[in-house]
Amino acid sequence: MNLELYRPAVRDLWFKRDLLADEATMSYNRAWGGTVDFPEELWGRWHAAWVEREGEGRRSYRYLRDADTGEFVGEVAYRWDPEYESFIADVIVHARYRGRGYGGAGLELLCDAARGRGVATLRDNVALDNPAIGLFLRHGFAEEWRSDEFVMLRRDL
Question: How confident is residue 31, by pLDDT bands cut at 50, 70 and 90?
Answer without folding.
Answer: low
